Amino acid sequence: MIWIALHQICVICSTFVCVLAGELGNPYTILGVHRKASSQEIRQAYRQLAKEWHPDKSKSPEAEERFVEIKQAYELLSDADRRSLYDRKGITEDDFYKRPEKHSFFTQSPFDDMFGPNGAHFNFQENDITFFHKLSITTKQYDKIILPKSETTPYLLFFYTDWCFPCLQSAPYCRKLHDSLEPLDINFVTVHSSREPNLARRLNVHTLPCLVLLIEGNSYVYKESVTNVPKIIEFIKSKFPYKLVTKLNEDNLEEFLDGWSDNRIRGLILPHKIHTRLRYLVTAYHFRRHVAFGIAETDSIHNKYQVPPDMDTVLLFNENISYPMASISMKDIPTSTLYNIISSNQYLALPRLSSQKMLDELCPCEWNQPKKKICVALITDDSSVHDLHRQSFRHYAQKFPYSTEKVRFAYIYHRRQAHFISALRPDGENMEPLLRIVLFWRRDTSLIRYEWAPVRWELESNLNNSHEKLAETIVRLLKSSETFPYEAYVTDLFDEHAIGFVKKAIMRVSQFLESIYDSLGREQILPALSVLGTIVFILGIGYLMAHLVEKEEEIIKKKRADDDSGNNNNNSNSSYQPELKLHELRSEKYNGLVRLLKPGCRTVLLILDVQSRQQLIPPFHRAVWPYRKNKTLHFAYMYIERGLTWYKELLQLSLFEERELNINPRNCVGTVLALNGHRKYFCVFHAKHTEKRKTLTKSTDTPGQKDCESGAFIGFNSEDSESESEEILLQGSLLDGLSNWLDRLFEGTTQRYHINYWPEFPIK
């Protein structure tokens, strides 16, 4: 039984597709091309058949019907998506949505036995799906029609699929929403999510059913239930541009009405209820390029204009703010009525050519029109100096006898539209365009035919002359036999109302963040917050660690500066740089600086006492500074009071003397030792040690011979040193020859004293 039922379903589906394909007709057969025909071949076949079967050229009674079939077939095959859909399934999008109305296939199918004799279940579904199909759009229609129109008209997009039961349940509310918003000029359309998956992804649709609001090309996802119509209306109100309708009271009313310098008229809304109705927001959005709307919030404004308190009133003002140029009062003003009144009065008495769009509206191209429409523009400067000239020209325009259908008066700023005005200067004439009047007729978007008025627009004695000369010129050019003497190619006008780069970037970022927020559901918000919290935590920990390290470095630097400065005020300390570190040789550092040195490494050790430290450290530091980047060298100093026994034993091992040496510690101050811990030898520098003879070594000429000179400089006994120290050396000059000795040390020419082992350093 199951196999039989499945077989019946397959037969029914195949029959359904075949019937529909037969009704639509084969577009390839209609155009007479094969299935693999290229776009160029399809276009050529269409052009040939269209010329043959055009109703105006063919006398056949079937010409009109045949021409429609040819056009529909060409539209199908010229669209790559629709052609692919037809090749795969034999159907098209537009005809598919109309089939439930033409065919009661499901109500006559074998499933009637399962769902009742009348097929009530499928009839209910069919009616709802039919409603959605009637309003359904494609991605191509969205890009070419819906998206551009959203700049002036809001759109509600309802995403659905055929077998989405929540979508079917929301159908009555969608009908109600459609019937409520259509009179307000808010278009309600539907999108089949399965057939347009790319559009659903572009608009961040994650669940079905889904309602998306489209305003100014920006999409906003409605996250609440679509069954609550009042909430949807509040959602639409909240997504209109910021300050679309200004709230007015006694303080800012006059300032609002007097702000027509932005080239827009003023629309004053006086409602009998406090809240702003949706129809006024839609109207303000539609005409926001030409009209600035404000809504009165106090009764004093109603009393000032003496409007009925139980009716809604809309007043339109141009440059004359004392009296409205148009008004309407009704209990419920229809949107169509508002549109008609505003469309007839959407320009100032003397508008400004402030953008290319304004030029196209006031002075349209008329290359195919039999009657010319002349534009008369006064060239002024953007300053209050020319206010009186513009006011005088405005009065002249209002009193001009010809209608605005033939003559349109306007003014233009010289500095802001310098490229446009300079293109209208006749060749070879160096004229000043300020306060001059140019009369022009636009043949197409770039070609303008023009003539300059013979006199400037003056205010005093020549005013009547200006009026007469201008009127004569206009009347003469309106004649069909007259032509303009000059023509020029011009570029588009500079948009004076364009948003700046910074403001545009801020708006783009805010819109992007708002779209992300609208597109995120509850299941996406928690992971996003988790990732964001993790990033913030990592950045916070990193900043805290960096701050602690910086604080610790400051403490260490301060401590080093205090240790190095001490109580000494000597200027030589100011040259000390802490980049080279000097270690103090003590018992805990002895192994690292001497005994356990790696092969090739040496320690340069300065011997001093407490009294000579401040005088010997700076010159020692300057002498070893050039070798600070040598990684095989360590630099240290040793107090002779602490290491006297170690130093005595070191000398004893190098001299191979059995008797105990008598060393004077004062004679050892200023001695520098270069210790090679791995090879167990050292080199000695002292101010009195000239190294003329290689003594104090194992290979002496006479074993056991005593060298009194060498013994004197290292302080073997005090008697010799005292008797032979004819030259008295100051502590500050003890290290004068250290730099030369270091050069000879690294050249390998200094004398080396070898030992068998390193003695122990005293622990104190």
UniProtKB/TrEMBL annotation:
Keywords: Autophagy, Membrane, Signal, Transmembrane, Transmembrane helix. Coiled coil: none annotated. It is a single-pass type IV membrane protein. Residues 1-21 form the signal peptide. CDD domains: DnaJ. GO terms for cellular component: endoplasmic reticulum membrane. Residues 103-241 form the Thioredoxin domain. SUPFAM superfamilies: Chaperone J-domain (SSF46565), Thioredoxin-like (SSF52833). Residues 26-90 form the J domain. It comes from the Eukaryota. InterPro entries: DnaJ_C16_autophagy_reg, DnaJ_domain, DnaJ_domain_CS, J_dom_sf, Thioredoxin-like_sf, Thioredoxin_domain. Its main location: endoplasmic reticulum. This is DnaJ homolog subfamily C member 16. The lineage of its organism: Eukaryota, Metazoa, Ecdysozoa, Arthropoda, Hexapoda.
